[in-house]
Design a protein that fits this description.
385 residues, 7 helices, 31% helix, 37% strand, globular
Length: 385
């Protein structure tokens, strides 16, 4: 039994099958981007062990095809097992070893990138300062204790907890949040409209007479230039009583405010924030155009990097193909405001960013070494002849 399993994992037939499944997965996942959008298609097809299908009207899902992690994992096992089975020690095989190591490192590097890397955006207006970046698509429910004027205490609940309608409990919160309703994408209006229903809350925005809010659930946004805007109703419960039901929405311009036990709180559904131990101050944003046209020539951000703990205070110019690399993160010039008074920096944290370069070097060295070995042998035999 073990011998048969070993032969199966080392067979060339398994390699061909896995490569064919990979081709189908790439083709299928690319087509799915039309309806699902880029990010959801990546998660459903390539960053998963299985591709799932949800029957119409059902609350469960069925695995119907191997996902990217499963195909890549078996390819990695197949590569290792075949190498151990067929490899014979000797100088002539060093090139093959390096090539295999390079391919393995490439696969592992991609896995580490998926698991460890984060991408976020930092939007700064001229003269403004930021010490955090924000996710592009993912949200959190932030409950902020603002009683102390010098320091805010923040408890952040990821949106997937809200989707599951689970109660929100945290040691730093003297109350419990109960999710009554949650829409992953929604629309809000201040007046009645077709398809909208009036929001029923007992506290905060929309609770006072004459300040009603109407809302509706929408399908999730899939276009690259669109983003889902979640909304929900959360009830705050204490051991003594209910503090009321509140609207939380990414579309609200200001957070909900309330008090409990002589402490002041704010609650907001916002993009996930990644705080930094330093700050960036936008000194000047420049958007250069070709003379006589509106065609962009260059756009750049002159920022002031400040980290008081290290006594660091310096100016940095960020422009296309010249990012700022600092504290394990890379800040790229990504976009800007329509009035040219603000910049948008893409912030990438990828601990395994060097692995593709190392893998390419190993593969190249292996190919050169293997070619040179065969060339020397061929030249020696021809000389003897």
């Amino acid at each position: 039994m073990l011998e048969r399993l070993y032969k199966t994992f080392t067979s060339l037939r398994l390699t061909v099958v896995l490569l064919a499944l990979g081709l189908i997965l790439v083709f299928w996942g690319t087509l799915a981007q039309v309806n699902l959008g880029l990010y959801k298609a990546q998660n459903d097809f390539f960053r998963s062990f299985f591709v799932f299908w949800v029957p119409p009207g059902a609350s469960f899902r069925l695995p119907i095809f191997p996902g990217g992690y499963l195909v890549g994992g078996f390819l990695l096992i197949n590569l290792f097992a075949a190498h151990l089975r067929y490899y014979r020690p000797g100088k002539r095989k060093w090139g093959i070893v390096l090539i295999h190591l390079g391919v393995v490192l490439l696969l592992l590097g991609q896995l580490l990138t998926d698991l460890l890397s984060t991408e976020s955006m930092m939007h700064i207006r001229n003269g403004g300062t930021k010490n955090y970046s924000e996710a592009s698509m993912d949200f959190e429910l932030a409950i902020i204790d603002t009683t102390d004027a010098a320091t805010d205490q923040v408890v952040a609940i990821p949106s997937h907890r809200l989707q599951k309608r689970k109660d929100i409990r945290h040691p730093d919160l003297p109350f419990t949040g109960r999710v009554k309703t949650y829409f992953e994408n929604s629309a809000l209006r201040e007046k009645p409209a077709d398809g909208f229903i009036e929001l029923k809350v007992t506290a905060g925005m929309g609770a006072s007479p004459g300040t009603g809010i109407w809302w509706r659930e929408l399908p999730q946004a899939t276009a690259m230039n669109e983003r889902s805007e979640p909304s929900g109703i959360v009830e705050l419960l204490t051991p003594e009583k209910s503090l009321g039901t509140y609207l939380v929405s990414s579309m609200l311009q200001r957070p909900q405010e309330f008090t409990y036990n002589q402490r002041t709180y704010q609650m907001a559904l916002r993009l996930i924030r990644h705080y930094k131990p330093f700050s960036l101050h936008l000194v000047e944003f420049k958007h250069d155009r070709y003379a006589g046209t509106e065609i962009p020539k260059n756009f750049s951000s002159r920022v002031r990097l400040q980290q008081p703990e290290k006594g660091e205070d310096r100016e940095v110019l960020i422009y296309m193909n010249n990012p700022l690399r600092y504290a394990g993160e890379t800040f790229y010039q990504a976009s800007f405001d329509a009035d040219d008074q603000g910049t948008v920096l893409q912030v990438v944290h990828n601990p395994s960013w060097l692995t593709p370069y190392f893998s390419c070097v190993l593969v190249t060295m292996g190919m050169v070494l293997q070619f040179t070995t065969h060339l020397v042998r061929f030249a020696s035999k021809r000389k003897i002849a």
